UniProtKB/TrEMBL annotation:
Residues 1-50 form the PHD-type domain. GO terms for cellular component: nucleus. The gene is G2e3_1. Keywords: Ligase, Metal-binding, Zinc, Zinc-finger. The keyword Secreted does not apply. GO terms for molecular function: ligase activity; zinc ion binding. Residues 65-114 form the RING-type domain. The lineage of its organism: Eukaryota, Metazoa, Chordata, Craniata, Vertebrata. This is G2E3 ligase. It comes from the Eukaryota.
Length: 133
């Protein structure tokens, strides 16, 4: 299979959406706006069919990532995520992924409101890989 992101052959991951023929390499997923869910059936989605956060919040002007303190911009996008509980904690996808890798599943929580359940579920759904330890 040919990767729709880089154009090279050997792409082994296919979009889970029926009828979608897009394939990609796992390392190309983030660059192509794809999401891989690391739980259950380990489903993957291309940029067009990936899940989006149901939270109807948008970052206010001058909103910063709570992890790196850099601006997250003023619109929702693939590269920004928000806590589904407090709706005020915004993160860059890469920053929250780093936080998840350091915290592990037992200590992973929203850095602002400290919610564990809904926050963990939402981040897993949005493709954040959270190791057991």
């Amino acid at each position: 299979q040919q990767c729709f992101v880089c154009g090279e052959s050997g792409a082994t991951i296919t979009c889970r959406e029926r009828g979608c023929e897009r394939s990609f390499h796992l390392p190309c997923a983030m660059e192509g706006g794809c999401i891989t869910q690391y739980f259950g059936r380990y489903r993957s989605f291309c940029w067009e069919h990936c899940p989006v956060q149901a939270v109807e919040a948008a970052p206010e002007e001058n909103t910063v990532c709570l992890i790196c303190m850099d601006s997250v911009g003023d619109t929702k996008s693939y590269s920004t995520l928000v806590c589904p509980v407090c709706k005020h904690a915004w993160f860059h996808r890469g920053c929250i992924q780093g936080h998840a890798l350091n915290a592990g599943i037992y200590r992973f929580q929203c850095p602002l409101c400290r919610n564990k359940g809904a926050f963990l579920t939402e981040m897993l759904t949005m493709g954040i890989r959270i190791p057991l330890r």
